[in-house]
Amino acid sequence: MDLETILNQYIIPFGINILVAVVAFYIGNKLIGWALSLLDKVLTKFEVQPILIGFSKSVVKGLLYLLLTIGILSYIGFDTTSVVAILAAASLAVGLALKDSLNNFASGVMLILTKPFKVGDFVEVAGQMGTVENVQLFSTTMRTGDNRQVTIPNGQIYVSPLINYSAKPTRRIDLVFGISYDSDLRKAKQILLDLIKQESRALTDPKPLVVVSELADSSVNFTVRIWVESADYWSVRFDYIEKVKLTFDDNEVVIPYPQMDVHVQGLAAQN
Questions:
Q1: How many Å apart are CA 180 and CA 259, to the nearest integer?
Q2: Among residues 119, 147, 154, which one has the least CA distance to residue 133?
Q3: What angle do CA 117, 154, 36 make, to 5 degrees?
Q4: Which of 87, 116, 154, 268 could form a disulfide with 108 if both were Cys (CB 3.0 to 4.6 A apart)?
């Protein structure tokens, strides 16, 4: 086989393929950059959190470059069937091995997209209560009231009932106070109402409520409901309970101990 034949049958076609592959890679690289930029703009427009934008771009970028590489190798003449089969098998094996991690990741994506809570919210979920400090793709970090850091896998959060105490601007304080049957009911009710009026942090809309809710075994029970700003909930609750006790004491309104009347029969006959 002479040199001209080698050039015409092997070197020149292979060189053309290499040149086309380089051009294809250059154009593909530009298109991938354009696609990633478009994806960034779309996700930003829908107010997706930056952590999910960055991860999404990384995944899409990897997939696009993988497809581009396989396409170029196939054009040059490489048999990519075995490569695709190996990648598929490897993906299946990795998926089975990382089943829990993938579940946490999928749950993290859903939490970021649906936004049932945000950083700074006070929530109760998966048996824990605290302030959300960080939301990652695989786990969420919370700070409890006694300053402990708790990390919860997102998979547990997504399948658990979640209470977000910070979701609404206002909250209602529900309290029950019992007074003895011998105490002045009208005076006690007026004290409870006056203490609410004196509390500057209590809201007037919705109106507070003070009603007699139960004639219990050893007490007459008042139900008290006070609306406050969410941030003032605990401070108003604690202050109001303390003021009620002190004011009841000053006005001889008795909060009774639980008690039971015991009737003994037959002692006189035995004596």
A1: 11
A2: 119
A3: 80
A4: 154
What token pair was written down for 265? 């029969």
pLDDT at 124: 94
Tokens of 95: 């998926």
Question: Which residue has better confidence, 25 or 14?
Answer: 25
User: What is the 8-class DSSP label of residue 146?
Assistant: T
For residue 169, give every residue at least 6 positions away whose Cβ sits within 8 Å of its Cβ, in sequence order, or none: 229, 230
- Give the count of beta carbons closer than 10 Å to the beta carbon of residue 234: 14
Rounded Cα–Cα distance for residues 174 and 182 (Å): 25
In terms of Cα–Cα distance, which of 157, 124, 127 is closest to 140? 157
Length, in residues, of the chain: 271
One-letter amino acid identity for 98? Answer: L
Other CB atoms within 10 Å distance of the CB of residue 133 = 14
Give me the mean pLDDT over the 79-107 stretch: 68
Give the other-Cβ count within 10 Å of 151's Cβ: 13
* Cα 213–Cα 219–Cα 222 angle in degrees, nearest 5: 30
pLDDT, one tens digit per residue, over 17-72 is: 778 888 888 898 899 889 889 888 887 877 766 766 776 777 788 888 888 888 87
- Residue 265, phi then psi, degrees to nearest 5: -115, 145
Single pTM value for the model = 0.63
Question: What pLDDT, on the 0 to 100 scale, is given for residue 7?
Answer: 59
In the chain, the amino acid numbered 232 is: D
Q: Could you check whether the bond before residue 206 is cis, i.e. omega within 30 degrees of 0?
A: yes
The span from the CA of 29 to the CA of 76, in Å, is 18
Residue with tokens 């007459």: 220
